[in-house]
Design goal:
The protein is an all-alpha fold. The chain is built from 18 helices and no strands. The protein has 2 domains: 340 residues, no CATH class; 37 residues. α4 packs across α11, α4 packs across α13 and α5 packs across α16.
Length: 384
Amino acid sequence: MSYATSTFSDMLQKADGRPSGFDYLRISLAIAITVFHSVRITHGAEIDMALWESHLRAPLRALLPMFFVLSGFLVAGSLVRCRTLISFLGLRVMRIYPALIGEVLLSALIIGPLLTELPLSAYFTDYQFFRYLANVTGHISFWLPGVFENNPDPGIVNAQLWTVPYELYCYLLLSALAVFGLKRHRWIGLAALIALMVAYWVFREFKPDPKAGLTNISGWMLIFYFLGGVSAYQFRDVIPANPLLLVASVVLTGIFLHAGPTGEYFAVIPVTYVTVYIGLIDFGRTVFSRLSDLSYGLYLYHWTLQQWFVDVFPGAQSAWLTSVAGLVGGLLTAWFSWVLIERPALLSKRLIIRVEDYALSILRRLRELASPIYPRLSSQGAER
């Protein structure tokens, strides 16, 4: 396979459709985010801001976009394999919500009561407690009453959850594009990406975001990176897989993400290329790659556990110790979450397929009943 003719599709086929690169990426990104968050949790927002202004600015700003590109590429493949949106959305719900519910209940019903400075009667009747429970819907709140109030990053139980609503928006957007024919016309995803980016740029020209470019990329921008991953999957047979393009994309990613807000738009293409290229490399299976099943759990649990560590050992004052606590505690908790919650939930795929079969049988029956009146509708159903 020569570099001149190799494509992303060739890389995918060479790995029998299951390259291990995506596994390495998922767990590596989750670990990197955990380590980075330890600085703010240990030393507060001021030191955290200094990191965003340092030479680490570009790689730090690339972490979440790479996560969203990875998600877009893999979820686009899932959409193609699913017969209808019933199974597609059902699988997305089973992947996102069980672990999210587990994180919310662990924080609100175990960690919160253990660490709150309020009487338990006041804790369990506080509005913020009930508001926090609403996190299970994807409508995120970061605070529990009286918890972590004296930490360097006071009061925040799980700031990392801010990305969850945008991940849900991505799934809904992809579903809408599927309704408009994305599975048959691959240009629809790319057209949506371009149109939404232009619309958002025009919107920000009239209503600037004062925080744009200072720290993380905004949630709305992350949706564009998700669509970049979707488009890379849709056009995988024509995108060249060239090491020189990979190097160039890494350089451009660094340049664009180190720049101001405008660079975020231009970075979509190189970040997408770097992420998908690395993901499609088949490095082989190792213990480290098998940890990829724990990446979502690590992302969900690490912040709360690191805040707990800093709360219990306020004199530690070491981001490295906080990192170790977050990684060890986060991976252990993620393993329990995977074994007891996430993997059993994913096994419900059979139930989702049965529901889909039932819905399709009803649709076929309705077409049969309508055939004497609308013969064209019946013939279309037969063709499908």
